[in-house]
Amino acid sequence: MALIWLHRAYPITNQIHYWEKWADGYVREKDVFPAKPMMVYVHPSSPGDFVLKKYNTVDRQYYLGVFGLQSIYKEAKTAPVVYSNWNESFTLSSNYKADDNSVAWGTDGKYTTSGSSGQPGSGTTITDGRYKLFSTSKTSVNGKEVEHALGSGAFSNLTHDTGTNADVYRGQVYDLKDNDYHYSKIYMKDMKVYDVEKVDNPIIKFAKKGDYKKEYAEYPPVEVWLRKKGSGLDDYFKYGTFSFDAGRRVQFTPEPGYEDKWDLTQNKASHVTYLNQLDLEAAFGNDIVGLRFKQDSPYYRTSFDAAFTLQITPQQDMKDAIVTTMGQGGGYNTSFLAGDATGEVRQLGAQRLNKRAGDYFPEVGYGLEPLNINSEFAKHNDPRMWIIRNEASRVCRYLFEGLNWGTFPTSLQKDDFTDHYVLKEGRYL
What we know:
With 429 residues, the chain is mainly beta. The protein is 6% helix and 40% strand.
């Protein structure tokens, strides 16, 4: 089946000139042309040119669990959802480009992507979604995709409650309420911009440069929008912007009336890194329950990755949901915390793509696993502790040791979480 693009087309010409001489001396020479005009159609921008993602650690299709969080949340203790020694819960990512038709060259040799509209050549908005708690097994989530199209729930396509191994989850799904969580930290991990260069070709008049733009201070800012508890689901306010300085360091500029708070330091000259994130708890308390990033770009291709930490503050209904999951039979006793994200891409102010970010269920969530504390007790007869009264009399002393041990992720290696399991005294009978 032929595909016809109602787009720019360029005629191309081609011909063959041949000359041959036969054995008897006869010479034949002729020009051959195509029977019909030939055209080259330049493919317009398509959704394949845009990438919107949400992921926990990396792009993944398989289960990832955090040791201890199921038990900790069951006890209504506050803790971040962070795997191992990572520095964030999730990353929101967008990679997008301007329409090739909007690229125009000025007399100064520079290009623009705005055409005659005055609108930014391209832009993106990506919004983190609401979180849900499922009862799954550690294998039932593997390879399962989220529902990409909008208009139905992000997880409405997941098989459940059939009583077979096809079930991704079983039982009731708990929707986290505003008091069950908040966003505690954010930072920008990376941003890249790619320019184009002019080429001497009547069909393809420019090509994307192979390396990203080195004038970092010219990168377009990424806006940070937040939503407070009790506000409407689309009632966001602009907190400030991430940007690069000339040394490719991430800076944050708050909007008037707001103050930037830092994770490690209050030094206003500091730049944002994974070790020095913006502290939303210090700025807003536990009040931020919605997060959105927005960017408009005058360049050909632009991308950014922004990360955040989700702090869980389980209330009674969430505790009850976790208790129910832990008592589930059939292996579906893992609490799986997941949340979608939605994103759009714009070109010249017009929406070109509007879909969910993230492809697979396991990359937009975490398994919450119970604490598995191992206890060890030992009795040692150590000759170094013997009391020698004389050559024929020795008193043997025994050493009794007891310990609890388990592997906690870095984010839970704090006294608040470990003190409860420390052996502080005991009695041998």
